[in-house]
């Protein structure tokens, strides 16, 4: 799994390439979570992600929860049909701002309100 | 406070003590059973009363040959439990099983077979049937592979709903069949995720509890065969034959091929709860998929045959279930197994209750005889984790044990009331000698449940097993030819009536009568005390073409046809209104059986019986008409009068109405003879009757009135 980071205006864009599974979770976690600490919205460009496993899903959700803790938003962009199906079927999709490509993702993030968590409500 | 508390960052037991087959291992934790993620590794624990050796067999996902086989050292065993912690496993890409050796001089009833790899009876997920209907490779030596499952689902504060039992309206459905048909329009048909998309429909119908036909992992290809006449592939569609008791059926998950069925099913439960709908699971603990002497060895047979099954002295399987074997439920080990399984579903999946298939078997002892105080049922009844769960028994078995009303209930169990079904069916078709029994069914069957409350009775007219409601009024006889058994299978005694023509007809009179009979049935069901249960699709007249045993059909025959929702609006609206009416009148939902006394001190008993003449019920053998007046209070504390008249006579009758207190007038909620919208109005909008003295109740019709102040 490769993670490339860049800034686009107020948004941190992380481009991921490879497979998100148990083998890559700790790497993703270590590289992505610090990006949230500056309280900038995060856009994860998943165009290059071919498969997200159960452990990979959990990493995404952990990222979401970390973002929520700092009132941040996370957008997922470029989901393959398979990844989108998995996220939708397991109910994880609704946690994220989802867009087809980076420009629409950036627009969507701008109009999104801070993450609304209901954990422990 | 100063300083920070000591936080344990590392554990002594997160390091291996041995190396076996290339893996670092250490003596495992003996409890809990099964495979559990622990720091740095995976803990495996399995029980066998007589095994002499056990090895853990690891596979990479889907591969035929093992990745490694780790013989569990004898010194890792405590009692009959073999436990090992293995470090460095990629828990996502590994499948596992056990190889078990028995003593050389094995008991005649032992079935140890170290040539096989056994599934873990506690496996939280099972692979091998990941996508529904994909034909398996039977040459594979290890068909059902145990998998690890995450237990960190984000429930977002969800918990079981604990809706008062008297407020429940149960809806029995098959997860796959509910949305598999193209007409469902969902994105992932036939899956847990597909069902999520139909939650708005369930809400609009008004049901608040779904009872899911078996979702524990089973093999749809068990005993699969081709119909010799049609060539149709017949499957184990219903799934009453469990392979994995702790594992949700992967083939019902859109994500099953990615091994994410646990999350997908949890999301379904969460979404249903968010919509205010409880989840009851239909669970099958009377037998397993291992069948009889000729059946496959999956887990129990090779681990501990004598513990898990009820056997003859010669070692043959007793067959009280009618499916080959009988689980030895009251053996202490098996009892603990069942208990821990249900605790797992209640706590890990937030399940609200369980319906036990052929539950009478659960009170049979190790010799097969029923026990007066069966330990399993006692344990379930008093279990702390299960305290708020519905426990519903199908209080009979295939071995002739029939315990309706006498099932050991510990004040805790409800029962599928088969007598309700039979009485109401016979009454509706016009049989004589049914009116007094009908009266008993309408008030929660106090003959069966006098020492309990009305919620002990789960009332139903139809369920998955038997005719659908539409078929009940369309067929005199079953038509099970498509099952490939020459129409010999299925129940012959259906108490059904075809309304004059067998099967579909263009005759408008017959069609109208059938719709009316369905409305009569729904009105009866939804205005009876006890917990009503509907079979999915009956609210829109779903047919199975007269097949009353569709267990093997994964086809439009058994799927929910969603085009009916647009086509059969009349019945659907009627059912919706009836459900809402039930919700608006707690006198119908009352937990207590009525006493016949003037409980409110307003001059009316809480229940009174009537005939064509008010206060004069006709209990004679030939009677077809029954009126009952329920008197209670609304939730607002106002006196509530609900008058129900059922007429299964082929002629209409002018029925005198009981007189109401001053200022209260009869208003019409439902008249099944009337065309819509007059058949049932929106509750609260009942129109006042012009004639307050009498009402015409049409042939084979029912009316329901409410007494309300006029202002």
What keyword list fits this structure?
heterodimer, A: 121 residues, alpha/beta, five-stranded mixed β-sheet, 4 helices, 29% strand, disordered C terminus, B: 711 residues, eight-stranded parallel barrel, six-stranded antiparallel β-sheet, 21% strand, elongated
TL;DR?
The complex is a heterodimer of chains A (121) and B (711). By secondary structure, chain A is an alpha/beta fold.
Count of β-strands of chain B:
31
Radius of gyration of chain B: 28 Å
Strand content of chain B: 15-25%
Radius of gyration of chain A: 13 Å
Please state the average pLDDT score of chain B. Answer: 95
Oligomer: heterodimer
Structural class of chain B: alpha/beta
Largest β sheet strand count, sense and barrel closure of chain B: 8 strands, parallel, barrel
Indicate the structural class of chain A: alpha/beta
| Annotation field: number of helices of chain B | 15
Q: Biggest sheet of chain A, open or closed, and with what strands and sense?
A: 5 strands, mixed
Low-confidence stretches of chain A: 116-121
Read across the widest sheet of chain B, the strand sequence of neighbours is: 12-13-18-19-20-21-22-23
What order do the helices and strands of chain A follow?
EEHEHEHEH
Q: Going across the major beta sheet of chain A, what is the strand order?
A: 1-2-3-4-5
Query: How many separate helices of chain A?
Result: 4
Amount of beta strand of chain A? 25-35%
Helix proportion range of chain B: 10-25%
Largest interface: A-B, 22 and 26 residues
Q: How far from one another are the termini of chain A?
A: 35 Å
Protein model, in words:
The complex is a heterodimer of chains A (121) and B (711). Chain A has 121 residues and is an alpha/beta fold. In chain A, 39% of the residues lie in helices and 29% in strands. Chain A has a five-stranded mixed β-sheet, sandwiched between helices. In chain A, helix 1 runs parallel beside helix 2 (54-69). Chain A is globular, with a radius of gyration of 13 Å. Chain B is α/β, with parallel strands linked by helices and 711 residues long. Helices cover 19% and strands 21% of the residues of chain B. Chain B is built from 15 helices and 31 strands. In chain B, the strands form eight sheets. In chain B, strands 12-13-18-19-20-21-22-23 form an eight-stranded parallel beta barrel. In chain B, strand 19, helix 7 and strand 20 (390-393) form a beta-alpha-beta unit. In chain B, helix 8 (418-428) packs across helix 9 (435-442). Chain B is elongated, with a radius of gyration of 28 Å. The N and C termini of chain B lie far apart (66 Å). The mean pLDDT of chain B is 95. The A-B interface holds A 21-23, 53-55, 57-58, 61, 65, 85-86, 88-92, 117-121 and B 90-93, 150, 152, 154, 156-157, 187-188, 191-193, 196, 253-255, 258-260, 263-264, 267, 270-271.
């Amino acid at each position: 799994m490769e993670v490339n980071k860049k800034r686009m205006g107020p948004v941190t864009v992380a481009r991921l390439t490879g497979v998100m599974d148990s083998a890559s979770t700790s790497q993703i976690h270590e590289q992505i979570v610090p990006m949230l600490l500056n309280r900038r919205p995060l856009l994860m460009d998943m165009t290059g992600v071919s498969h997200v496993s159960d452990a990979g899903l959990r990493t995404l959700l952990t990222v979401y929860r970390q973002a929520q803790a700092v009132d941040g938003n996370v957008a997922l962009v470029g989901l393959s049909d398979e990844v989108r199906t998995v996220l939708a079927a397991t109910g994880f999709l609704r946690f994220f701002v989802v867009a087809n490509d980076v420009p629409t993702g950036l627009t969507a993030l701008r109009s999104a309100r801070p993450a609304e968590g209901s954990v422990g409500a | 406070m100063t300083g920070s508390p000591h936080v344990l960052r590392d554990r002594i037991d997160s390091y291996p003590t041995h190396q076996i087959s290339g893996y670092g291992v250490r003596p495992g934790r003996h409890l809990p059973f099964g495979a559990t993620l622990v720091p740095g590794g995976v803990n495996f624990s399995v029980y066998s009363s007589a095994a002499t050796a056990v090895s853990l067999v690891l596979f990479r996902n889907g591969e035929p040959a093992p990745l490694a086989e780790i013989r569990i050292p004898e010194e890792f065993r405590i009692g009959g439990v073999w436990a090992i912690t293995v470090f460095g496993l990629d828990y996502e890409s590994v499948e596992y099983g056990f190889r078990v050796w028995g003593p050389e001089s094995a008991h005649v009833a032992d079935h140890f077979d170290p040539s096989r790899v056994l599934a873990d009876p506690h496996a939280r997920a099972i692979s091998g049937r990941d996508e529904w209907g994909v034909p398996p490779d039977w040459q594979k030596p290890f068909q059902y592979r145990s998998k690890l499952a995450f237990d960190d689902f984000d429930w977002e504060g969800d918990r079981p709903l604990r809706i008062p039992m008297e407020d429940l309206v149960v809806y029995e459905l098959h997860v796959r069949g509910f949305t598999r048909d193209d007409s469902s329009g969902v994105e992932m048909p036939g899956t847990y995720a597909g069902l999520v998309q139909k939650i708005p429909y369930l809400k609009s119908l008004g049901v608040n509890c779904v009872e899911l036909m078996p979702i524990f992992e089973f093999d749809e290809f068990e005993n699969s065969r081709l119909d010799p006449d049609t060539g149709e592939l017949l499957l184990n569609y219903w799934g009453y034959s469990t392979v994995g008791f702790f594992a949700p059926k992967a083939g019902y998950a859109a994500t099953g091929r990615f091994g994410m069925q646990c999350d997908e099913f949890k999301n379904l439960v969460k979404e249903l709860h968010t919509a205010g709908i409880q989840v009851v699971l239909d669970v099958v603990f009377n037998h397993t998929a291992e069948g009889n002497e000729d059946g496959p060895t999956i887990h129990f047979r090779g681990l501990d045959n004598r513990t898990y099954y009820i056997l003859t002295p010669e070692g043959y399987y007793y067959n009280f279930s009618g499916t080959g074997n009988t689980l030895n439920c009251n053996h202490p080990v098996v009892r603990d197994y069942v208990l821990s399984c249900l605790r797992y579903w209640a706590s890990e999946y937030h399940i609200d209750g369980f319906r036990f298939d052929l539950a009478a078997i659960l009170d049979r002892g190790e010799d097969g005889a029923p026990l007066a105080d069966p330990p399993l049922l006692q344990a379930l009844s008093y279990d702390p984790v299960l305290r708020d769960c519905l426990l519903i028994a199908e209080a009979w078995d295939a071995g002739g044990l029939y315990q309706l009303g006498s099932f050991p209930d510990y004040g805790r169990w409800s029962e599928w009331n088969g007598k309700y079904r039979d009485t109401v069916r016979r009454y509706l078709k016009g049989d004589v000698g049914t009116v007094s029994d009908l009266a008993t069914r309408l008030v929660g069957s106090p003959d069966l449940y006098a020492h309990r409350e009305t919620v002990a009775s789960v009332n139903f007219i139809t369920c998955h097993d038997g005719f659908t409601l539409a078929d009940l009024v369309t067929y005199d006889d079953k038509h099970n030819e498509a099952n490939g058994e020459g129409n010999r299978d299925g129940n012959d005694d259906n108490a059904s009536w075809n309304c004059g023509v067998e099967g579909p007809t263009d005759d408008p009179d017959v069609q109208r009568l059938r719709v009316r009979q369905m409305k009569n049935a729904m009105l009866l069901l939804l205005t009876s005390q006890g917990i009503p249960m509907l079979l999915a699709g009956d609210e829109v007249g779903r047919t199975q073409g007269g097949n009353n045993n569709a267990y093997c059909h994964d086809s439009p025959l058994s799927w929910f046809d969603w085009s009916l929702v647009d086509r059969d609006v009349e019945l659907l609206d009627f059912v919706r209104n009836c459900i809402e009416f039930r919700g608006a009148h707690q006198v119908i939902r009352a937990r207590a059986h009525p006493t016949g006394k003037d409980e409110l001190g307003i001059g009316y008993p809480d229940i009174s019986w009537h005939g064509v003449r008010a206060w004069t019920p006709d209990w004679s053998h030939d009677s077809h008409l029954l009126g009952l007046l329920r008197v209670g209070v609304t939730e607002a504390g106002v006196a509530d009068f609900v008058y129900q008249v059922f007429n299964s006579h082929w002629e209409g009758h002018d029925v005198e109405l009981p007189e109401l207190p001053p200022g209260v007038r009869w208003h019409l909620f439902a008249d099944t003879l009337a065309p819509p919208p007059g058949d049932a109005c929106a509750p609260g909008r009942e129109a006042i009757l012009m004639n307050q003295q009498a009402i015409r109740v049409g042939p084979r019709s029912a009316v329901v009135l409410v007494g309300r102040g006029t202002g």
